[in-house]
Automatic annotation (TrEMBL):
Example of a GO MF term: ATP hydrolysis activity
InterPro entries from the UniProt entry: P-loop_NTPase (IPR027417), ParA/MinD_ATPase (IPR050625), Rv3660c (IPR022521), Rv3660c_N (IPR059050)
Domain Rv3660c-like CheY-like N-terminal: 19-121
Domain of life the protein comes from: Bacteria
Any one GO cellular component localisation term in the record: cytosol
Protein name from the UniProt record: Rv3660c-like CheY-like N-terminal domain-containing protein
Annotated SUPFAM superfamilies: P-loop containing nucleoside triphosphate hydrolases
Length: 372
């Protein structure tokens, strides 16, 4: 990722400069800075994906066009090339660019176009890649290659580690879960659970949603499934989960979602709504084979994917073999903690966390750009 210049304030709209050509790059940043908007400068595909939907406008060139063409169609895309050209009109069409300009010859025309650019949303907020936290929320999904990999524990650990620096919401995305409130010792704490929420098509304030949820002593608000001896008709699916994620996206904090294997809730995957997807893969042959199918599916969402090896007492694969079979780079490894299950059963996930578990959680937060 390039160094960010003209860093926008947290409530300021920004122009994303995604230009890889070293000759064209300074010309593009000068024009962007002249608009008075904040400027975020990066050619990193992961950062472009994360910032793409919330930018006031995007300036890109032939080097970054192939990646931008894979992202969701949006207004205010401008292809640039160095004077005297030629302009790559095929790249412009593949990205649905509004216009293409040669710089510096057409700097004035580009400046005018940026001033009249259509906004992708009514009140965009910045997401600054070099900052630890911004006004737009960071969403982290945690899923496993198979059941029993320990995704709930890892999700809660990420939330607990993030709570040192940020306001955090932990979401139970597993319909038949026993309840993430149990994992944090909040089963007796009053507050809304999934069946109590009826957001419908409306979007409530994130602060109001969090205030209705049970919260841990370190400030983690938990949206959990409910336990009932009655036949409850409520079923958690994407129609319930999507409005909550949309709400929390506008909240300046970290949201961690515990998902079933593969990330599917009901008939849809919600990974595409997240900034980072963490895939926990037991270092065994069958889970690794299952992971290969999941990885292929998750990569369609264009969300950054982070693979973590899980050693469940006995591992048939080392890190290299696991990466080869699953087709997923392994960023960290997580072992079994012999004393942790008993501690969780008696009083919930401990604080402080076991050292290695805390280290893995910090790695995830760093990858998501949410570390202080």
């Amino acid at each position: 990722m390039s160094e960010t210049s003209h860093r926008p304030a947290s409530d300021q709209a920004y122009i994303l400069v995604a230009v890889g050509d070293p000759v064209l790059h300074p010309e593009a940043t000068h024009v962007a800075a002249a608009t008075g908007f904040g400027v975020i400068d990066t050619a990193d595909p992961r950062e472009i994906s994360r910032l793409h939907s919330r930018a006031h406008a995007i300036l890109f060139d032939a080097e970054t066009a192939a990646h931008i063409a894979t992202l969701t169609r949006r207004p205010s895309l401008f292809l640039l090339a160095a004077d005297p050209g030629p302009l790559d009109w095929r790249a412009a069409l593949s990205c649905h660019a509004e216009q293409a300009y040669l710089l510096p010859a057409q700097a004035a025309e580009l400046l005018s176009a940026l001033g009249h650019a259509a906004m992708p949303r009514a009140e965009p907020r910045t997401d600054e890649p070099s900052a630890a936290w911004t006004a737009t929320g960071t969403l982290i999904a945690v899923t496993g290659a198979v059941g029993g990999a320990g995704t709930s524990t890892l999700a809660a650990a990420i939330a607990r580690e993030a709570a040192h620096d940020h306001e955090v919401t932990l979401i139970d995305g597993v319909d038949n879960s026993g309840g993430l409130d149990l994992l944090l010792g909040l089963e007796e704490t009053p507050g809304a659970r999934w069946p109590d929420l009826r957001l419908g098509e409306g979007l409530i304030a994130a602060e109001d949603l969090r205030a209705a949820l049970p919260a841990s002593s370190d400030g983690i608000a938990v949206l959990s499934t409910a336990r009932s001896t009655l036949a409850d008709p409520f079923r958690l699916d994407h129609r319930s989960l999507r409005p909550v994620l949309d709400c929390l996206r506008e909240f300046s904090g970290v949201t961690v979602i515990d998902l079933p294997p593969g990330g599917h809730v009901g008939e849809e995957t919600i990974i595409d709504a997240c900034d980072l997807a963490v895939l926990l893969i037991p270092a065994e042959v069958r889970p690794a084979a299952a992971a290969a199918r999941i990885v292929a599916d998750l990569r369609k969402s264009r969300t950054t994917l982070l693979g973590i090896a899980r050693h469940r007492g006995w591992s048939g694969l080392d890190e290299k073999d696991l990466a080869k079979i699953s087709h997923c780079d392994i960023t960290a490894q997580l072992s079994t903690f012999s004393r942790l299950p008993k501690a969780v059963e008696l009083s919930g996930l401990p604080s402080p966390l076991p050292r290695l578990l805390a280290a893995v959680a910090r790695t995830v937060l760093e990858e998501a750009g949410a570390r202080a």
